[in-house]
Design goal:
By secondary structure, the protein is of the alpha+beta class. It is 45% helix and 10% strand. The chain folds into 2 domains: 1-60, no CATH class; 62-177, no CATH class. The protein contains 10 helices and 4 strands; from the N terminus they run αααααααββαβααβ. Strand 1 (95-99) and strand 2 form a beta hairpin.
Length: 177
């Protein structure tokens, strides 16, 4: 048994939701669509259905080079964090997580789920299984860069006084991609 949560235009008009989230239909990412199609093939879904999935439009991933401007670089280099500081935030709200050496402040449920950890390796596993970061492929690097780009975009969209977003770095300069 499983549950599916569906956010519809009708839900978006409900005052309980509309104050903090907007309804916006976007195509899936190529990574997610690949998971659906490979899973569909694995469980022998109808070939036409899988072919329709493969032909589905996809959303482009954000490109790090497009958003890594002086403002973004200033966010990343604003403060040097130690691994001890990151780990000490585990269980706190707010807390810190690390992605490709970039420190991101998390709040609420995300603080409890991702706080106090370096998410870099875990994010790589969403692309393809590897044993260590020494095995990074171009696909992993592109995924990590897209995630850092998304964090930059989200950080720039925060309202003044809102907690969260990029607050510094650990070993960001060690990554050469």
């Amino acid at each position: 048994m499983g549950y599916a949560y569906v956010f519809t235009p009708e839900n978006a008009r409900n005052p309980a939701y509309s104050s903090f989230v907007a309804y916006n239909e976007v195509p899936p990412s190529q990574r997610y669509l690949n998971m659906l199609t490979s899973g569909g093939k694995k469980i022998n879904l109808d070939a036409k259905y899988v072919a329709d999935l493969e032909a589905h439009a996809v959303s482009p991933l954000p490109v790090l080079a497009d958003v890594l401007d002086d403002e973004a670089k200033a966010l990343i280099t604003a403060r040097q964090f130690t691994d001890v500081e990151i780990e000490a935030s585990k269980g706190q709200d707010p807390s810190y997580s690390v992605l490709k050496g970039v420190v991101i402040m998390k709040t609420g449920a995300m603080a409890k789920m991702a706080g106090g950890t370096d998410r870099t390796f875990k994010e790589c596993l969403r692309v393809r299984v590897i044993e260590s970061l020494a095995e990074l492929g171009d696909d992993h690097k592109a995924w990590l860069n897209a995630n850092v780009a998304a964090e930059i975009i989200k950080t720039k969209q925060l309202k003044e006084g809102e907690l969260g977003g990029i607050v510094g770095m650990t070993n960001y300069n060690e990554y050469d991609f």
